[in-house]
């Protein structure tokens, strides 16, 4: 029983303590007036700090602006044309200028590495650290004479023309060749002077001996009377003669489109590429679905026969070669019988020299 009483007394004591805790009110004291006074006294100092920070920022911004506006000092571009590349670069470096280099072949042997041109020109006023373009010589295209014997002279001319294209003074010039009969094909270079391997220190003139071709001397003149246009074209292809062909309107007793006259010679054989006069009787209008005529063109004279051809381009259908032959140049005359509207094209040494449309 005593134990139970003690337990009840202990519980009552704890309950009374808890009630007393909730009955107590917390005491919180905030002094607003004191904090407001402190804030009022710190406003001038805060504003002063802000103004100082703003002034410092403005000063820094103006300093940066004026430094950028001032930029690098202006300098005088030096004259480096004719100087070697190393000296030119040193001069540019002293002036605080940058160099942009490009290479170009020159006409003068021995000037490799020399400044040929500059931009801006010497004496120009530019800002420091600007770029100056320098054109530097990479030397001459060739420094010695090559081996030309065995080449075709037309191929050599084309090669040298391409090699020195754009050069004001080509280093190799071909003299007028000497021609002679030889077993080699016509146009083949037999001899040269100076020989291959000769060093070039200044422009050099090359003398050549060129083949006129085998059996150049004589050929037999063919009999042409009564030959048609197609027959005559085949003879021209095979022959080593030059036919100067003219025509007239066929009369009633003449067969249109045939040879009615030719030049006669005292000897059976005549020198190769002798000019032979030939007269043809041609119809005045369309005949057998073809237009007849003589293709005539004046071309350059050559010291030996060069390849020529006439291509036909019909208004309908595929193109074809009307005639392929060798000719020494001058007046070229070729008979034709082609459909109306066909375009004929004369090519000399792979170069088109003239065109004609048949109407």
UniProtKB/TrEMBL annotation:
Membrane as UniProt keyword: yes
Protein species of origin: Treponema bryantii
Membrane-spanning residues: 43-67
InterPro entries according to UniProt: PASTA_dom
Keyword annotations of the record: Membrane, Transmembrane, Transmembrane helix
Protein name: PASTA domain, binds beta-lactams
Pfam families: PASTA (PF03793)
Domain PASTA: 71-138, 139-212
SMART domains: PASTA (SM00740)
Gene3D superfamilies named in the record: 3.30.10.20
CDD domains: PASTA_pknB
């Amino acid at each position: 029983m005593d134990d139970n009483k003690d337990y009840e007394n202990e519980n009552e004591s704890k309950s009374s303590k808890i009630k007393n805790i909730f009955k107590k009110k917390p005491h919180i004291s905030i002094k607003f007036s004191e904090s407001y006074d402190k804030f009022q006294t710190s406003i001038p100092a805060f504003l002063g700090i802000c103004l100082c920070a703003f002034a410092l920022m403005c000063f820094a911004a103006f300093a940066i602006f004026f430094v950028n506006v001032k930029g690098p000092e202006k300098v005088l571009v030096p004259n480096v044309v004719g100087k070697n590349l190393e000296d030119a670069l040193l001069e540019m470096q002293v002036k605080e200028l940058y160099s942009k280099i490009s290479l170009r072949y020159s006409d003068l042997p021995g000037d490799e590495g020399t400044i040929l041109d500059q931009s801006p020109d010497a004496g120009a006023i530019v800002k420091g650290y600007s770029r100056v373009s320098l054109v530097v010589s990479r030397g001459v295209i060739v420094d010695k004479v090559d081996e030309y014997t065995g080449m075709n002279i037309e191929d050599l001319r084309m090669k040298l023309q391409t090699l020195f294209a754009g050069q004001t003074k080509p280093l190799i010039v071909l003299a007028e060749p000497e021609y002679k009969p030889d077993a080699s094909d016509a146009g083949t270079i037999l001899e040269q002077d100076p020989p291959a391997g000769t060093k070039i220190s200044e422009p050099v003139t090359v003398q050549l001996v060129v083949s006129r071709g085998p059996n150049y001397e004589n050929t037999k003149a063919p009999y042409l009377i009564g030959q048609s246009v197609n027959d005559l074209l085949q003879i021209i292809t095979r022959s080593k003669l030059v036919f100067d062909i003219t025509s007239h309107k066929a009369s009633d007793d003449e067969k249109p489109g045939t040879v009615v006259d030719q030049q006669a010679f005292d000897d059976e054989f005549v020198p190769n590429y002798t000019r032979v006069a030939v007269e043809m009787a041609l119809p005045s209008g369309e005949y057998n679905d073809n237009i007849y005529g003589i293709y005539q063109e004046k071309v350059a004279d050559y010291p030996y026969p060069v390849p020529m051809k006439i291509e036909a381009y019909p208004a309908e259908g595929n193109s074809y070669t009307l005639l392929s032959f060798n000719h020494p140049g001058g007046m070229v005359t070729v008979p034709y019988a082609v459909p109306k509207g066909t375009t004929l094209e004369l090519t000399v040494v792979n170069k088109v020299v003239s065109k004609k449309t048949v109407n």
